[in-house]
């Protein structure tokens, strides 16, 4: 336990108040992990907390909920009064709270047993709901009636799934049933809160654990009905030995934990359902699915109020993920780098590699890996590093006697093709001479 935390607990105890660390930090400590932060609960009221720490900077984080932040050595520690929650409104938050002198009452209002433990400064554990036992048995169990806990705050549906995936714990049977039956309550939760939970899951190690549990409980249908359509979808192609949903999930596992890249992996083939056809060869075809998929992913992410930066990157990656021909010249690769952006192109190749690996167990992605290595080399070229690709611009062309209009754009486009093919020709003298010799 950090010295600052012990200091806070001692300071409250010296002033005749009970004080404990509580919740996730206790859980992580018992699991042998170093907590990211420490929440402290106390019998002291907010005004009393401020008085105890009058020599330190304090911030009233939520007066109605009894939380005061104390700044010690530049770190903020939240101290919250024992409380009893009133009736919850719209499955989201209590309409009021009542301060309490009883630690047990405070722990009773928490979500899961593994988060409903407290510890004093001498490391004595207070565990009225057997959270330590559930940790040992690797179970996520609700405090009390799981239906009541989920109806109080429906975001607990996603928190249960996140904790299950994070720790590789099982959902206790009654909690699993309650999540499956009450999943529609998520429609009462703000999209921002939902997306915050989903981001934590999709960027974690092995996101498939969370996605498969979401599918198993029906939560996926509520949050992403567009993905629901991919479950059990047979692609009717010898290049895939998995259903579409399983392919998407596996691809997501195979890329690094960058948010945009993981989202692109999850949604990259989402519109295969919309573009499916059977050709004369008896195989499934999905012409244009990458274009439709980019548009559909934008619609989904706008629904969840993702940032424009994330949305744009996801669209770029999905739109270009099929451009993985068996042979590509340096000219084509330079054009691709400029099209998707040097900041995105290596992630695009990571998506392509993962997509290939997730098709069949015997697929060989070595040719894509080799091409990615060539792209890395091309990224070191001067032209690929500069936002100004050509050594001349429209003003230079006009100085040669050309009038404003379509001809300027045509010349610039032609010159770009020349430089894509041979960057050594990207010098003002050569390009100027080329214009004089080839355009009137």
TrEMBL record:
Q: Which organism is it from?
A: Peptoniphilus ovalis
| Sequence similarity | Belongs to the tRNA nucleotidyltransferase/poly(A) polymerase family.
Q: Where is the HD domain?
A: 237-352
- Keyword Magnesium listed? The answer is yes
Name of the protein: HD domain-containing protein
Q: Which residues form the signal peptide?
A: none
**Lineage of this protein's species?**
Bacteria, Bacillati, Bacillota, Tissierellia, Tissierellales
- What CDD domains does the annotation carry? HDc (cd00077), NT_ClassII-CCAase (cd05398)
Q: Which UniProt keywords apply?
A: Magnesium, Metal-binding, Nucleotidyltransferase, RNA-binding, Transferase, tRNA processing
Identify the domain of life: Bacteria
Record has RNA-binding as a keyword: yes
The cofactors it requires, by name, are:
Mg(2+)
């Amino acid at each position: 336990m950090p010295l600052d935390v012990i200091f806070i607990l001692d300071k409250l105890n010296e002033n005749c108040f009970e004080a404990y660390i509580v919740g996730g930090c206790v859980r992580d400590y018992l699991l042998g992990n170093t907590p990211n932060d420490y929440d402290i609960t106390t019998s002291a009221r907010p005004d009393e907390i401020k008085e105890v720490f009058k020599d330190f900077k304090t911030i009233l984080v939520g007066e109605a909920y009894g939380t005061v932040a104390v700044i010690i050595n530049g770190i903020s520690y939240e101290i919250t009064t024992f409380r009893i929650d009133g009736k919850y409104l719209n499955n989201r938050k209590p309409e009021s709270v009542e301060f309490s002198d009883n630690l047990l009452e405070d722990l009773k209002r928490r979500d899961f047993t593994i988060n409903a433990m407290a510890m004093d400064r001498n490391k004595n554990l207070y565990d009225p709901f057997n959270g330590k036992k559930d940790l040992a048995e690797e179970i996520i169990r609700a405090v009390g009636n799981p239906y009541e806990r989920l109806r109080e705050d429906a975001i607990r549906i996603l928190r249960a799934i996140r904790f299950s995936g994070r720790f590789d714990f099982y959902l206790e049977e009654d909690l699993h049933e309650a999540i499956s039956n009450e999943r529609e309550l998520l429609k009462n939760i703000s999209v921002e809160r939902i997306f915050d939970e989903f981001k934590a899951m999709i960027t974690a190690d092995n996101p498939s654990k969370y996605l498969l549990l979401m599918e198993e409980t029906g939560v996926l249908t509520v949050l992403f009905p567009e993905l629901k359509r991919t479950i059990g979808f047979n692609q009717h192609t010898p290049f895939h030995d998995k259903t579409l949903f399983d392919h998407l999930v596996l691809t997501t596992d195979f890329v690094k934990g960058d948010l945009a890249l993981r989202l692109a992996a999850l949604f990259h083939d989402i519109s295969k359902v919309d573009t499916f056809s059977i050709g004369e060869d008896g195989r499934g075809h999905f012409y244009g699915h990458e274009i439709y998929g980019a548009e559909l992913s934008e619609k989904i992410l706008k629904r969840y109020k993702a940032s424009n930066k994330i949305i744009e990157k996801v669209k770029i990656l999905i739109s270009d993920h099929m451009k993985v021909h068996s042979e590509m010249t340096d000219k084509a690769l330079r054009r691709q780098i400029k099209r998707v952006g040097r900041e995105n192109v290596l992630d695009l190749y990571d998506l392509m590699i993962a997509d290939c690996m997730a098709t069949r167990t015997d697929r060989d992605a070595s040719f894509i890996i080799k091409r990615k290595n060539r792209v890395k080399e091309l990224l070191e070229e001067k032209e690929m590093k500069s936002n100004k690709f050509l050594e001349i611009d429209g003003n230079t062309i006009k100085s040669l006697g050309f009038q404003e209009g379509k001809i300027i754009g045509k010349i610039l486009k032609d010159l770009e093709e020349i430089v894509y093919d041979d960057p050594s020709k990207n010098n003002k003298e050569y390009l100027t001479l080329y214009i004089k010799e080839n355009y009137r």
